[in-house]
Amino acid sequence: MLCNLPLAFLGGVRVYSLTNAAAVVKIKHKWINQNPFGSMFWAAQGMAAEMSTGILIMNAIECSKEKVSMLVTHQEAKFFKKATGKIMFTCAGGKEINEAIRISKETKEGQRIVLISEGKNENGVVVSSFSFEWSLKVK
């Protein structure tokens, strides 16, 4: 990650778990990713959230053995609580990703899917929720 995503590495973003169905990415509040209000900067949360969706797509592409282009085309976020401590971002969109790849392969057209990544603190409280629209196209 240091070579490919140095900002995410320095900010403390780490893949916690990955299956074909879901991905969990963790990030811990620390000096380098904080805002002036004593919590995690929204962009640091966004990096972790996006990684949970992107790594799930990359895994599905690898499993499909297809060449697929992927691009974030839209993003929205909601913030509910101060993000302090360890935050786990979870995306459970594996089924939707596989379906989009299948349809793109059949139709030769790009597909747009929306993946949600929810960030929870160590007490299981949702601190933020990110929505990423991805465009996927089998080449």
Point out poorly predicted stretches. none
Mean pLDDT: 95
From the coordinates shown, what is the CATH architecture?
Roll
Q: Helix proportion of residues, in percent?
A: 25-40%
Q: Element order, helices and strands?
A: HEEHEEHEE
CATH class: Alpha Beta
Oligomer status:
single chain
How far from one another are the termini? 26 Å
Superfamily at the CATH H level? Hotdog Thioesterase
CATH topology: Thiol Ester Dehydrase, Chain A
Question: What characteristics describe this protein?
Answer:
37% strand; Thiol Ester Dehydrase, Chain A; 6-stranded antiparallel sheet; single chain; 3 helices; 6 strands; 139 residues; alpha+beta
Descriptive account of the structure:
The chain has 139 residues and is an alpha+beta fold. It has one domain: Roll (Thiol Ester Dehydrase, Chain A), CATH 3.10.129. It has helices at residues 6-11, 42-64, 94-107, and strands at 14-18, 23-28, 68-79, 86-91, 111-120, 126-138. Strands 1-2-4-5-6-3 form a 6-stranded antiparallel beta sheet. A hairpin with a 5-residue loop joins β5 (111-120) and β6 (126-138). α2 (42-64) packs across α3 (94-107). The two termini are 26 Å apart. The model has no long low-confidence stretch (mean pLDDT 95).
